[in-house]
Write a sequence for this structure.
């Protein structure tokens, strides 16, 4: 979507016109750094596939439907969802509506049937959208600390013990340094801030890297489920 705000860029014989949106690795950023357009696109695509699947629901068993929903719906909701951490509630509510509709389809229940929370948590074992983002961030931080992630992400994961603060109690709790953030709207959404905040909120014993990665992931999911 092109716009007239900002100068054009001339590269040889080509002219690059300004745009109100830019797509980076599948995520659409607006000129004001909001992700509303990205969420709207994801939501529209997911609801399109949900409508297609609902037409054939009677001819598909539950296992096939779960596979289709994971491939076309939940994978899209989860893709790069860490960039949505600490976004406005209206943003997460939009994606939550997608998950709710997918849960209704998988369990073959109607829109106005009660017990949606039970379907999501007890039957399907799905986390709500904000918790899914927290889970993704915790997973990414753990990979960074084990040198299993990209360097530019690992550089933001600085243990308290690495900055000459060994006298602090937090040094023995395997916490990460939390940079100061002046801009509440965008600064707190950055990985360098949102990631350490999620990591430091976990119980101390599970921030210890001696805990196996599989146990860590299962435990984080259990912790997030316990918040409901």
């Amino acid at each position: 979507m092109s716009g007239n705000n900002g100068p054009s860029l001339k590269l040889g014989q080509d002219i690059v016109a300004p745009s109100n949106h830019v797509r980076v690795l599948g995520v659409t950023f607006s000129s004001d750094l909001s992700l509303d357009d990205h969420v709207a696109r994801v939501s529209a695509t997911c609801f399109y596939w949900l409508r297609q699947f609902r037409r054939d629901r009677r001819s598909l068993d539950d296992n096939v439907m779960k596979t289709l929903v994971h491939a076309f719906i939940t994978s899209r909701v989860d893709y790069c969802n860490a960039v949505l951490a600490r976004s406005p509630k209206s943003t997460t509510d939009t994606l939550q509506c997608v998950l709710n509709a997918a849960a209704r389809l998988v369990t073959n229940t109607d829109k106005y049937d009660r017990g949606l929370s039970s379907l999501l948590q007890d039957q399907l074992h799905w986390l709500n959208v904000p918790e899914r983002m927290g889970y993704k961030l915790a997973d990414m931080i753990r990979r960074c600390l084990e040198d299993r992630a990209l360097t530019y992400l690992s550089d933001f994961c600085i243990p308290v013990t690495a900055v000459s603060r060994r006298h602090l109690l937090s040094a023995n709790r395997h916490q990460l340094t939390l940079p100061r953030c002046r801009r509440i709207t965008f600064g707190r959404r950055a990985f360098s801030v949102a990631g350490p905040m999620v990591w430091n909120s976990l119980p101390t014993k599970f921030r210890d890297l001696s805990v196996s990665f599989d146990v860590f992931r299962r435990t984080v999911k259990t912790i997030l489920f316990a918040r409901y």
